[in-house]
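Example record

One chain of 175 residues, shown exactly as stored in the release files.
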Amino acid sequence: MVLVDRIRLDSELLQDERVRKLNDAALGAISSGGVGQADSRYLCDRVACLVGDSFVDMGLATYGSVGAIEGVVRDARRIVFRRRTFVVTGKLSLGSRTAVAEMIKERGGHLSAAVATTTDYLVVGVAASRDWVQSSEGRKIQRALELRREGRGPEILQEVVLRKAMEFGTLLVDA
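Predicted structure tokens for this chain:
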């Protein structure tokens, strides 16, 4: 019940298909009157889909296969597109990087390839990239965190927040 209540209280969680499956499995076990051995295995598998293997290896909770990064932007209304520079890392569910770059450009922003002191936002995709140096983060995330420790780093947001911000973000019309 604690798990179901936690998911119910955070509408962003329910946007992830894996969380919805976990929630459905938990509700199914509750409605059947208890968690049997098969239910327990299935629930554990659903949780493993969310936290990935890195939790076992490093004790780092994950979002999908992406590390849970402290201080990420969770409020999509805070994202400003106009005259801001975005960098993307990880696999995107929104589409190709070209498509995402176009979506950002339509809202007045710019997509860059590398994290620098001029980067405003680092968007972390829903799944880790095979090129990441660690299972939970790559060089772009490491660089962003390093810059943030120096007080010069970009805001970090998960792709789900960017998706929501795009719903709020005004499309610019060519004049």
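Notes: Helices lie at 2-9, 17-31, 37-51, 54-58, 97-106, 139-149, 159-168.
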